[in-house]
Specification:
Elements lengths: L1 H20 L3 H7 L11 E5 L3 H16 L3 E6 L2 H9 L5 E5 L5 H10 L2 E7 L5 H5 L5 E6 L3 H8 L2 H10 L2 E4 L2 H9 L26 H6 L5 E7 L4 H12 L6 E6 L5 H10 L4 E3 L11 E3 L6 H7 L2 E4 L12 H5 L3 E4 L7 H9 L4 E2 L3 H10 L3 H14 L6 H12 L2
Parallel strand pairs: 1-2, 1-4, 2-3, 4-5, 5-6, 7-8, 7-11, 8-10, 9-10, 11-12, 12-13
Length: about 400
């Protein structure tokens, strides 16, 4: 525990320095647990890492809120804060996660009257878990071989943390086995399923002007790109246009703050561009820059093909469940470690195309020019990723543990 506290203090220095440099004083207060709740009611503390995790958590957060539960939802990034706040869920307060130091965590537990802690995937923060006054739940728990090796260096701490868990649904069988090796109680073992498979888009109507601006079979989406992928995506689009001159690209960066840099890159490729944030008309643009948050369902619905980003870098790739839900043909890079089981199922059914560079991406787009083939690939992905797990079963488990 001493080594962990030292590491957390070093991490704290970096995070606070970042907040100060950005003049993000609300962020600083949140990191130190200095933001008071709007109500004196008891709160369930739910923690998710970033956009993908908080989106996957939305269905059960919304259901808990409608049952009268008050929720403190914490995340690790500013973009995830903005995204979750944009949903305006009742009885849900969203902020940056406090630093996992004993004094700060104790303050949050006291001020927010925390009655339980729910954490997602691999977000196992020891102080929050060990000092939680109520049950601890882990949903979609993920423990890779690499992460397990790291926890072995702090094995005593890992065993204390895992033994405190009241309920854990692992993302895959291998993760469940690793949690068991660290002492997960038999009574705490829930069913194995991937939380992101519960994805369902927010109800709402599609902007008719947008729907009229895009022909789905001639539109592809670059979903949640990271720095390092932007140039690859634009080069691939420019290359594909030589054989598919009517092809349109909806470009949705992971972090909208990169929009200016992406617009400059588009100019270098002589691509015309319109920006969502500036309310520019997309009809005549070769690239529509979706530099907003909370609208991914719009883009999946408009795009017959989706390149799932984060997979041409070392970030492990993003979720294939969302494009599959909409029957969008899936293209991805080789780095899919975050969704290994899902991509294994896609590969087994020949339900996605793996590319390694701009040329490969361009060739895949050209190969999907036939609407029939494009639709068939999207339908295959839909079938491959369909799961029996449902939100009702998950809620039943959660409420049973919370009300025990």
């Amino acid at each position: 525990m001493i080594l962990y506290r030292l590491l957390m203090r070093l991490f704290a220095i970096r995070e606070i320095a970042s907040c100060v440099l950005k003049r993000d004083f609300e962020g600083c207060k949140a990191r130190f647990g200095r933001i008071a709740p709007a109500t004196s009611k008891k709160h369930i503390w739910i923690h998710a890492a970033s956009n993908g995790e908080v989106t996957s958590a939305k269905p059960f957060i919304a259901r808990l809120a409608t049952k009268g539960r008050h929720i403190l939802l914490t995340v690790n990034t500013d973009s995830a804060v903005d995204l979750a706040r944009s949903w305006r869920l009742p009885r849900v307060e969203v902020q940056l996660a406090p630093l996992d130091l004993s004094g700060i965590t104790a303050r949050v537990h006291t001020d927010w009257k925390v009655s339980a802690h729910i954490t997602l995937e691999s977000e196992l923060w020891p102080q929050r878990i060990l000092s939680c006054p109520g049950p601890v739940l882990v949903l979609g728990g993920r423990l890779t071989a690499r992460s397990a090796k790291g926890w072995q260096r702090l094995e005593a701490l890992a065993r204390r943390v895992v033994s405190k868990i009241s309920y854990l649904s692992a993302q895959d069988a291998a993760s469940l086995e690793r949690f068991s090796d660290f002492g997960l109680k038999a009574a705490a073992k829930g069913p194995v399923y991937d939380l992101k498979a519960l994805y369902a888009p927010q109800e709402g109507t599609l902007d008719e002007s947008l729907e009229q601006s895009f022909n789905r079979s001639n539109t592809w989406l670059a979903a949640s790109t990271h720095d390092g992928e932007d140039a690859i995506v634009l080069a691939a689009h420019a290359g594909a246009l030589k054989q598919r001159p009517n092809l349109r690209l909806i470009f949705a960066p992971r972090h909208p703050k990169r929009a200016d840099a992406i617009a400059e890159l588009a100019k270098k490729h002589s691509l015309t561009l319109a920006r969502r944030s500036l309310n520019e008309d997309p009809k005549s643009a070769q690239v529509y820059l979706a530099d907003t948050l909370g609208e991914m369902a719009l883009w999946y619905k408009l795009a017959g093909t989706t390149f799932v980003a984060g997979s041409l870098t070392d970030r492990g790739g993003h979720t294939p469940y969302e494009p599959a839900y909409f029957g969008s043909a899936i293209i991805h890079g080789p780095d899919t470690a975050n969704f290994k089981a899902a991509y294994k199922r896609l590969k087994a059914k020949n339900a996605a195309i793996c590319v390694r560079d701009a040329q490969g991406l361009s060739e895949a787009l050209i190969g999907l020019s036939d609407p029939i083939r494009q639709h068939a690939l999207g339908a295959a992905a839909q079938s491959a990723l369909r799961q029996e797990t449902n939100i009702d079963a998950l809620m039943k488990d959660i409420l049973r543990v919370l009300d025990a």
